[in-house]
Design goal:
Largest sheet: 26 strands, antiparallel
Helix content: under 10%
Strand content: over 45%
Radius of gyration: 27 Å
Oligomer: single chain
Amino acid sequence: MHYLSSKILSVVAWGVLLGGAVAVAQDLSISGAVTDEKKALVSDVSVVLRDASGKPTPQTTNGAGEFKFESLKSGKYELSLSKKGYESTSRTLTLTNESRVVDFSLGLGRISTTLTVTDSADTNSSTRLYVPDIEVPVQTSVISQQTLRDQNINDLLTALENVSGVTTQKQYGSMEWYTVGGFTQQSGNEFLYVDGMASTGNRANGQLTNIETIEVIKGPAALLLGTSGSSQAGAGGIVNVTRKKPQAQPFQEFFYRAGRWGLNDVGAASTGTVFGMNKLRYRVDMGYSRQDGFRQAGAKRFNISPVLEYLINDRGRVTIQESFSRDRFTEDAGIPVALYLKTGFPTDRKFNPPGDYDRYHDWQNQIRFEYNLGRGIRLQDQFFHEKKYTNFLESETLTYAAANVAAFTLGRSDFFSARHLRPTQNYVTLTGTHRFLGINHNWSASYNYQDHYSWNDRTGATIGSSTTSFPILPVLDLNLWLAPEFTENPVQQTSFPISQKSYVALNYNTFNVQDHIELTKHLSFNVVGSRGFTKRRAHNDAWDPATSTFVSRGVDANIAPQNSTNYRAGLTYLLRSNMSVYVMSSTNFSPVTTIPANIDPAIDIKDLKDPINKNYVAGWKWNTLGGRLKADFNAGKNIALNQFVTVFSTPLNMNVSVQAGQQSSKVADLDLDGYIGWGVHTIGVYGYAACRYDSFSTAATGVNSNFTGRRCTYSNRHSGRSYLTKQIRIGNDKRMSFSLGATYRSRTVMSNAATQDLQYQGGWVRFDAGASFEVTKKWSVAVNIQNLLNRQRFVVSQINGGGTSGQVYPGAPFAATLTLRYQFNHD
């Protein structure tokens, strides 16, 4: 009790510090007005201020065409302005000991050669148009670079805690799973996008050293980014990460991060012009991370991402971007639920034998070409090719019979996989702004081609066989395991002779047409039509494991071509220039891309139904305090049809996969992000998701499971996060900040089994904190604390099963991280 009281007092004291601290030096500001070529004031211009580190602060000009950025310190800054129909422009300036007034005059639509910020061509992520987000009938949550810095985040799973309605899991020690709006996106599905291009295969928990922002586009409305291979991806939403781009202003940075569980991170970044040529710019980001990990789930991660951008002329540019990642993980199979619930059983050790691993190689190649064709028409072509290799050997399955008290043992089996992926994509888009019959139209026409080619190396003792399990110590005596001196020397499989190769080719061809119509000064209509064509080809080739040579090509197991027509339509009404309400409906076609290995034999794969996702939403957006604080609320219903579900077949006496009728989720999401004054930056998100099976039907015989009315697995009814950061200026060159945050998860559904009593894992609240000090314009130091109150025994992820079956992952106790950062070339 004394310990808890002291922790509560420390939190109260922290809150007083956040609320009561005041600046001890006068804040500086940058303000100005924006006019057009006729000297008329221009409102609703997007104005982005970036400091020397590249951290963006957005605003929009008011009705008088004015903007103002306050609470600034001395140093070098860049202002970038953009508005549909006008030329984008930018300007750099230096603040010393006085505020600055800077006015702009915007010309009509060209690419400026002085533009040094090229974030996704300055288009809206969900439309790819030059349309302000407040006019788009879609909820898009954005995690900024500032949020990543404030919270000292270097992995995607932790970052996504800052988005409403999104919960994340890390399973087996490495693989990422996301749940958006109640629908879970599993490993292996094309749910994660990189600069708008689908990244296929299992998702390793990688670094964010080369990432600028993270965007979550909710529901099937994300269809403009292309057909996704996940049958549920369009139902909940997608995650799109945008990588950092070059800038003309030179900037270099180094950082070192150290923390509990053996964490050591180093990173570096450099950007500027090549040999002083303003038209040729570069950027290189590099990071290395090593950690032992809680529960000995360690990782060694490396990433390097070079970028080269050439401004052809005042109309176009070409960007070449590479990214190479090499990751090594030691695996963690979790803890059986029954052991986790056992009083006093330790949760800081894993059951995997020594030698379990997960390895990733990922090489991404991207070329982006943009050109202004004149008369309001712009061309963009984006090419993306990825080489990915994943290889793991891990104890995926743990079995513990809680009823057998006499035998206190644990069963295990190892699983092996080696997968090669070679996806190629090309996305070409024409966008334009025209006035027709007295009405303004922002339109686009695009073609998206995706070829997701992959193969798996299967192992076995004979030609054409397929073995995925290998011998280890199959039964673990838990009494021996609990002894402090316990060590294990299991039989390790070191040879994996190839006996079969399984090939899959997935081809997507998608055509999109979009029109954003300004019906009146306040009312706009956004409509998208999409037509998709999908083809899947697969075969298993026999190999001789003795000689590692090809023997014969297997029989094709293809799915009939799938075609679909999709739409998105929504109305937005501007209550004021900074506030809007909207309604929207959409569908998204997600073809069958993976046939479950245990599919019911009664189902002909050529007769598999097309998964379709639908949603109906209404929302409200508000940009206040000069555009520094944004609020976004969205409520509606998401529906997923024809999903695969595992059920028990009586005649086969085994679990089989069939297609369910329908799942639906009632959702409500609220996002707050920005400055509320007094140097306080706030993030507040809340998500509600009630996901259930509405109906279940199958033509297969002997299936005795009925999912109607059951809750969706891995879903939380309620989730939320708040995070406050208070900044305090100390002189011209020094600044301090203090942060306090909390993350909430309601109880998690563990299984959709018929038994409802032990189906859940209880909810939890975790507190975090941070403090940073900018010693000079170059040096800074930060301390971040996760699980401030040292909460014990809470589950952050789970695998399979409900009741006392299945496996869970305990959350980590108190951990602190120290970050040192050095920046230079400010002047």
